[in-house]
Amino acid sequence: MPTKPTHRLELDDLDLNIISALSTDAETSHKELAKRYNVSPGTIHFRVLRMKDNGILGESKMKVNLQSIGLKVTAFVGIYLQNGSKHDFVVAKLQRIREVVRVHTLTGQFSLLAEVVCTDREHLRSVLYDQVMQISGVDRTESMISLQEEFTKDIHVPYFA
Question: Which of 66, 71, 96, 123 is most exposed, with the fewest beta carbons within 10 Å of its own?
Answer without folding.
Answer: 96
